[in-house]
Q: What sequence folds into this?
């Protein structure tokens, strides 16, 4: 009996599909097929031909393509994403074609013109994990192309994929980023946008068509931090593994925060087990801050310490100590890494706080875009009408100086969003400005979880809750343990029909960052109120002063007090609300894109209990046009 040996070869495989294909086909099948046909002829097929890609199969919403070179595969994928975005820029937001692309280099089985095997399967799985408009590359592909292409590529972690035994290392092309250097967040480089931004993702985003890089003055460089290997006190091998794991987890998690740059692990390994002068280490690593720590195991318990130091002066900025049972070292490792990361990282973290202090000491005319971004974020956190207005000014100036600073666009969204609550901008102006800022942020850095989060908020403000949820889910997938991401999702969860989940997210966010800022208390008051946790909502509001209250905070205060039977206090809060917002009515507030039917019913019930007037003063106050309260329809008929 003769056995036929299967033909095998090493191949670079690209898997691509259209985001939301089923929805597009359901809406207009003929138009979708025509648009795909046009896009293939105008953009995709010429690029595949140019880069010697062979289409293995077409699957309606996507394609499988073979390349002889992984460099050709990645170059072609990046070109496709950029040119598709430019081609679709004038299409209606709901009809834009957006792709996900996964690339793997692996062994494939050849049967006639078709390909099978793990080499193909991994590419397909990466395509499914890839964010819309992005390119996700396997570790094997990255290893073979490393050093051959000058692309901004971020390590995206190890992913467990279906039907593949071992986790797959993944790398994400930052479609509108900067060249990657020896640290995880490149320093002394900023972006200059060259081509018109185009929409990507089914979320009305823009993706830059082409970029170039140029060095800037070191004063513009972001805050930078080195996480030194945690010291193993006692020298036990198992404790040493825990120390290494915590160090690596903190480095990996901090690298997700675009506010600052993190030195890669291989650059700090040389300091393992050595006594050192922090100032010398800071100069050698060229960083502003150093995090160091130690681990000691004794009698079934683990003691872990961490401290943050100013590398220039050696000044101690923060320290913390944890004592935990050592039964599950991996759970301990994860918990401590999350706590440290959330204390240091994000817009309210210790590193950014220290940088803000430095920026405040400079003359206003000498501030860089990055420093203006820091100060603008600080003004937002003060949560008053005056500070929010100032934040809009500072952040607008920041993006004028550096249009490529994605984090400034993120904060500018927050500033515009709050400005309507404080009566600085009218609602529609604030919504439009916020959407523009959020879209720009995601376009500039598709790997920034908070950029996707603010886009979700902007979409939710427009009543596009399905799209908002998709964007929030993306942000949570990119940074599942980040305080800010949990907070923003929690703030909109009730509008998405998930009030209990929102309250759970709020509880988790507080556990991760017990020193949460004032703005978070404002969000949590709404989150807990929507979930029926009125006492918790009032406790959050007690952390705010009346000048921190926007319109919704007054609604929550009055409604929560009324629900708890504290009628006199509820009436007083209602009167205070009307003094500040004379046009506030139940109808006008509830039908202003305030989410699901259950949330609206909850608001109507509690606002009635508190005594708010029912009917909007004019039809213009009903911004989403979804309906009227029954008593207001009667009043209108009687007037006519």
A:
């Amino acid at each position: 009996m003769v056995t036929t040996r299967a033909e095998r070869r090493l191949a670079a495989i690209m898997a691509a599909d259209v985001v939301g294909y089923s929805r597009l086909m359901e809406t207009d099948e003929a138009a979708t097929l025509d648009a795909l046909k046009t896009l293939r002829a105008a953009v995709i097929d010429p690029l595949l031909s140019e880069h010697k890609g062979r289409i293995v199969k077409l699957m309606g919403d996507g394609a499988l393509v073979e390349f002889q070179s992984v460099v050709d595969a990645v170059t072609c994928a990046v070109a496709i994403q950029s040119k598709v975005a430019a081609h679709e820029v004038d299409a209606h937001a709901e009809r834009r074609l957006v792709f996900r692309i996964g690339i793997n280099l692996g062994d494939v089985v050849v049967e006639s013109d078709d390909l099978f095997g793990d080499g193909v399967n991994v590419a397909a799985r990466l395509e499914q994990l890839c964010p819309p408009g992005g390119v996700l590359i396997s570790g094997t592909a990255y290893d073979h192309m490393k050093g051959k292409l000058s692309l901004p590529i971020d390590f995206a972690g190890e992913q467990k994929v279906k039907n593949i035994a071992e986790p797959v290392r993944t790398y994400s092309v930052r479609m509108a980023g900067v060249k990657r250097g020896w640290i995880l967040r490149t320093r002394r480089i900023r972006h200059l946008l060259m081509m018109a931004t185009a929409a990507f993702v089914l979320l009305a985003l823009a993706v830059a068509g082409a970029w170039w890089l140029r060095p800037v003055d070191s004063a513009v460089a972001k805050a930078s931090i080195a996480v030194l290997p945690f010291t193993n006190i006692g020298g036990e091998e198992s404790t040493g593994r825990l120390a290494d794991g915590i160090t690596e987890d903190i480095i990996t998690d901090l690298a997700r925060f675009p506010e600052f740059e993190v030195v890669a692990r291989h650059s700090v390994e040389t300091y393992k087990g050595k006594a050192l002068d922090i100032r010398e280490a800071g100069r050698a690593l060229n960083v502003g801050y150093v995090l160091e720590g130690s681990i000691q195991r004794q009698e079934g318990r683990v003691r872990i310490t961490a401290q943050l130091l100013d590398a220039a002066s050696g000044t101690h900025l923060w320290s913390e100590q944890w004592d935990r049972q050592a039964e599950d070292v991996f759970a301990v490792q994860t918990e401590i890494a999350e706590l440290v990361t959330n204390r240091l990282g994000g817009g309210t973290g210790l590193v950014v706080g220290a940088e803000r202090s430095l920026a405040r000491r400079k003359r206003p005319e000498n501030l860089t875009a990055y420093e203006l971004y820091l100060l603008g974020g600080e003004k937002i956190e003060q949560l008053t009408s005056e500070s929010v207005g100032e934040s809009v000014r500072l952040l607008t100036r920041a993006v004028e100086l550096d249009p490529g600073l994605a984090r400034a666009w993120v904060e500018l969204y927050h500033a515009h969003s709050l400005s309507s609550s404080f009566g600085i901008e009218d609602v529609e102006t604030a919504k439009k400005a916020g959407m523009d800022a959020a879209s720009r942020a995601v376009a500039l850095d598709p790997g920034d979880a908070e950029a996707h989060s603010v886009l979700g908020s902007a979409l939710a403000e427009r009543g596009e809750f399905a799209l908002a949820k998709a964007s929030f889910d993306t942000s949570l997938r990119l940074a599942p343990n980040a305080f800010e991401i949990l907070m923003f999702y929690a703030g909109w969860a009730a509008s998405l029909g998930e009030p209990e989940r929102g309250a759970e997210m709020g509880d988790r966010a507080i556990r991760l960052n017990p020193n949460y800022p004032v703005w978070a208390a404002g969000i949590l008051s709404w989150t807990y109120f929507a979930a029926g946790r009125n006492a918790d909502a009032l406790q959050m509001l007690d952390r705010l002063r009346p000048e921190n209250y926007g319109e919704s905070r007054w609604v929550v205060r009055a409604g929560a007090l009324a629900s708890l039977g504290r009628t006199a206090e509820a009436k007083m809060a209602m009167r205070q609300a009307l003094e500040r917002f004379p046009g506030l009515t139940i109808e006008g507030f509830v039908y202003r894109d305030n989410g699901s039917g259950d949330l609206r019913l909850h608001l109507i019930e509690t606002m009635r209990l508190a005594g708010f007037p029912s009917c909007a003063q004019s039809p213009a106050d009903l911004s989403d046009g979804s309906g009227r309260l029954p008593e207001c329809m009667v009043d209108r008929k009687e007037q006519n």
In short: The chain is about 50% helix and 15% strand.
